[in-house]
Input
Amino acid sequence: MTIFDGGGKVSKPIKIVLAIAALLIVYSFLPLIPFWLMQPAPNTENNQAAVQKLSKNEGTYFSFLVFSDNHAGLIFNDAATLKEIWHMNREDRSRKVPIDFVLSAGDVTLDGKTAHFKAYKKLQKLIKWPLIATIGNHDDRKLFKKYCGSEKLAFSNRNAYFIIADNEGGAPDLEWLEAELKKGKEYDHIFVSMHKPLFDPYQQDWYNVDNAPWAYKLRKLFAEYDVDMVFSGHRHMFKHEEFDGVDYMVTGGGGMLIEIPEADGGYLHYVRVVVNNDYVTYEVRKVSPPLWEYVTYYFWKEAIYWVRDLYGSGYILGRNTKILEPRVSGLNDKEYWFE
Output
């Protein structure tokens, strides 16, 4: 198949391929139109209402979904989250295990404005299971309470205890958190959600909590109370780590434009968790972006990283030769960690 015909014009087969590609790109944009026109879910559909819907659940075999950082209110983000929700709502198609609810680990809005919360409530309306949200650093606290309900709560579901903590500003309320952990010991499993992770999921970027004493102590506290999993977001990627037998999951691929390379975990996704009596397993569901979003952003993001890795300026121009000291001093003083 030639690109040009004998007259120097684009050949007919190429025109057909380009037309089909254009139609597919336009088609991938269409789900946004009914989304823009729909009404948001009522504010009464909040965290407390979602928990109430779970109160009659019985048994020890169930599943729930987790995502984070959809950042509602930006067209790119909403389009990607819409596609994730479509995949989420198909999770029960095999009819193998009941799915009880969906958990958001925070940053439900782009910048905490009223319009952004209304966009989030539209997304919530499209999810067919109860949605429980964690507050993130992009979510205005007053508006979060109005549209999402309590920013910290704890509840039981079947044989598990769930704690939704508020650490958008740093360390959570440790006294409240430990009190809830004690209650959780009466159940087979304990799950915790807090927006900011207790470790640095990507050492090459700005997020810096590995050297925070409160995060270190909190990891020890979760181990003491045999927490099963801790869910967070904040960094737009997927990363799993284990500390002292506790699984920590960063699941920040809920829709926000992802700046981290795909090879390092920078991809759209959500997590499905299954509780089977005393066992807990999980699967990461990777979701491709809408086609129009791929050709306008994600393709170029990966291309830029490829070029950077292939033709980095450091070894050509002689940069990066200066040793930089850590931003925090006293990291190797015992008092810093155990005062």
